[in-house]
């Protein structure tokens, strides 16, 4: 081959490499946009969806969006950051199911504490059936506030949920029956404290009820049409909704405290990732999950939960587990903000 010909051949190879890289970057950006859209299905406090995403080449940045924060209920943004953690886990599930290897930097920029995470995709990796199943479960998972008469959740299923939490960097303490009464007292105290505050009630009323045409908040279709029979009270929404509640008592439920070893933003984010991991695994096992956050919102009852944990760590969220009713109708899904309002593509 002449020198010219070999240079042209080398140039062609270089062009091909450049084209492949360009195509790859496009594929990476598309996968990241898809992941951010999948993350929109994540659970969040009062369905506020307090996240914002930015896709740049092969990077996806997650930010806390204070414009949908709860100033009265969640002044430190702990539950908003936890919700963002759930969204981050959903995004990672989407990328794993699309065959992308990811690197995640949590709290990557100390000067910008609202920059919660940066996800970078670098190379392709084999897709596992579990990753595909988790992705499918994202669309099925939802909050069901109805009480269910059923068998208790089996020990092996609870063990699987605990494992899912720990693999996501948090911990789960399953409460003994005698501790459930202490929890019930704490929840009752927290709800009374909140109900006595006019500003708190106004914030709750703003985010709940009606049909929620803007895609945020909890519609009446997801709120019980009367108070369910419970030992541990569910969220008092200040009004009844349209979700038919049966006479069932939830006495077969298992209660647990999701906790972290420290109580900073990173721990709240990790707790959210663990919530998503636990909820997706639970849904696949036919276990229904209900988060209860009133005792976390009120500082005094958060301290009571800490004592229930025997100082093992810092409580982040209370969870109720019940066996899902296989013959039951699915509770309505809550609405979501259109993806293009929370995803920015650079
Ligand atoms: C941090 C956090 C706290 C929550 N607290 C409660 C609660 O106290 N009571 C309740 O009924 N639902 C609670 N939820 C469930 C949300 O209301 C629910 O995720 C949201 O409305 C979206 O609905 P979906 O889970 O059906 O998609 C909580 C969720 C999160 C992530």
Polypeptide structure, described:
- With 346 residues, this protein is α+β, with helices and mostly antiparallel strands.
- It has two domains: 3-140, NADH Oxidase; 155-323, 3-Layer(aba) Sandwich (NADH Oxidase), CATH 3.40.109.10.
- The protein is 42% helix and 17% strand.
- The protein has helices at residues 3-39, 78-97, 129-140, 155-167, 177-195, 198-207, 265-284, 294-297, 299-308, and strands at residues 51-56, 59-64, 100-106, 115-124, 171-174, 254-260, 287-292, 314-323, 343-345.
- The strands form two sheets. The chain has a five-stranded mixed β-sheet with strand order 3-4-2-1-9, with helices on one face.
- A hairpin with a 2-residue loop joins strand 1 (51-56) and strand 2.
- The structure holds flavin mononucleotide.
Q: Topology, please?
A:
Blueprint: H1 3-39, E1 51-56, E2 59-64, H2 78-97, E3 100-106, E4 115-124, H3 129-140, H4 155-167, E5 171-174, H5 177-195, H6 198-207, E6 254-260, H7 265-284, E7 287-292, H8 294-297, H9 299-308, E8 314-323, E9 343-345
This protein binds flavin mononucleotide.
